[in-house]
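Handout, section B. The chain below has 447 residues.
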Amino acid sequence: MTENKTQQPTVTQSSGMRQFGTILGFELKGCLTNKTSIGLTAALIAIIVAVTFFPRILELVNGGGSKEPDNSVVVSQEEDASSGSVSDGSRPVMLIRADSAENGQMIMESFPLSFPGYQVMLTEQTDEEIKQQILAEEAECAFVMDSLTSYHYLVKDLSIQDQKTVIADETLQNMCSMNAMVRAGMTPEEAASALAVQIEHETVNLGKDQVQNFFYTYIMIFALYIVILLYGQLITTNVATEKSSRAMELLITSAKPASMMFGKVIASCLAGLTQLVLIFGSALLCFRMNEQYWGDNQLIASIFDMPVWLVGYMLVFFVLGFLIYAFLYGAIGSTVSKLEDVNTAVMPVTILFIVAFFITMMALGNGTVDSTLMKISSYVPFTSPMAMFTRLAMSTVSVYEIAASIAILIVSVIIIGIASAKIYRVGVLLYGTKMKLGSILKAIKKA
């Protein structure tokens, strides 16, 4: 008799683990085959592939066809008589029409240095002829000089990133300053030396480079926000659907409510992690395949320069933050009798999560990641997954602060998980009665 009593809890525990494993596998399969999730993941991966392969495709398109030389613009490897430079067909043409031969000579000494990516060529064509060349894409742009201090800039499509007039203004200003110095009695060498003074500086960063870390921090926070919100709502909807269809009554007879609750939450967490790995893994793989085509693009490179240790912290805060909100969403779903009441029921939790997101994003955008509000938010379990991760990426945080934040999160996950399981146990069998906060607290005490 004694042996039977001691073996009974082991049998019950083993049965509970089998139930949990069965539910986990079933729910995970449902999450991974969810059409909305698959469609969103596929769409994001397709966009990533299109963006990362764009420079490679563009180069293939531009280099794929052969064009006959156009005699209207010198694109051969012959010496250009007026400019004294060798034209290069691989570079776009920039036309210059000077108001005098003297000014034209000075411009051709300075502009090729200021615009190294262009074939700078003098022309004596009329305004209409220059416009026709630009419209025919035989030249990209032109500077029609009225004097050294006045010009017209002609271009077919003005880009928002077009900085040629800024460069031209600075170049012409230096030329005018040199002429003024020469007229005042300085030799051209002395004037050039005075204008060529370089100001040197060195930045010594003793902490994190917020500019470099901004983009991947922003992307990661936004990804956590989307995944937690998406799968949290999915948990609530699934629980409410099972309850409203009376399928819960059959499920509850063959499995423990706690096993059902934890199976749903952990399955959703694993599905969310899988989705993140697929999306960011695809982005990293595609970027590495096309890295040479992006050249020295610091913006794109900074996104993929996320340190490995920060990826580890992101996974820790993602899992713990996801579990907190998923338990809350699951508990709320068990208290809803009608599927149409789900959005209203989860509104308080959703608002809480959105507030946490906005606190973090505002601090990230303003560069105030070490403000008092962010420091407090780093220890509040509902805000710390995003707040502390942002501080880790954008500032210097002590090991003790990180350990305290993670410890609070772990304890909170355990407390909220136990409380949510008790609410779930009572809520799934209540129909027609809307559970209020007082009744929920009583149910937790009795469960």
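Note. The beta strands are 93-97, 119-122, 141-147, 150-155. Compare this with the example in section A.
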